Amino acid sequence: MGQSASPESVQEEVLSTYWRTDLTRFNYPQRDEWVLWEETMKLVGRLVEVVQPRRVIEFGSGLSTVVLASVVGRYGGRVLSFEHTARFARRTANALWERQLDQLARVAHRRLTLRRYGAKILPTYAIRWSDFEEFQECEVALIDGPPGWIGREATLYELFPRLAVGGWVVVDDMNRRRDRRWLQAWKRLYANALDVQVFPAVGEGVALLRKLASRPE
Question: Which CATH number fits domain 7-211: 3.40.50.150, 3.40.640.10, 3.90.1150.10, 2.30.38.10?
Fold first, then answer.
């Protein structure tokens, strides 16, 4: 479908067809608690198939990185995945290499740090964005890290300036109360610059965000 399709048609296509996505070659279904839920992975994968982004950013690496790299490889896209633990970063990098996908995805090990966002001090990845200029204006992103007990509110604050207007963000675990608080904070801050829809029946709850403008009016 590509970038020229309307947002409404993209969303309709993804929501009506994602369940058909076949993940068996990636060893789904998985019992690993750190692996993205199968339904959620199907939705993210289908979104990438429909939008065909050149740049995808992911917070929290793993099997999802492998799936995304496999999809974007069909049309020349690339994935940037941030991971805060060295062990998981190495595991993901090895999995990409084993499937000959290592040229399609970059796994960046970045420890967690605290940063100030307005009146809040929040945990986030220690990212120097000048190191990743080729991923500016990314068209699709996945927020599945850091772990929920650490907090994910800051991830969108880091991502939003690097997300293209019209870009899509999938956020996992929206059925958890603390995650819904982050969603409310994002809606208050970005207001009419961010479209937010929640689908509680997909996996553990998925939020589908779309950047409508560079800043709220």
Answer: 3.40.50.150
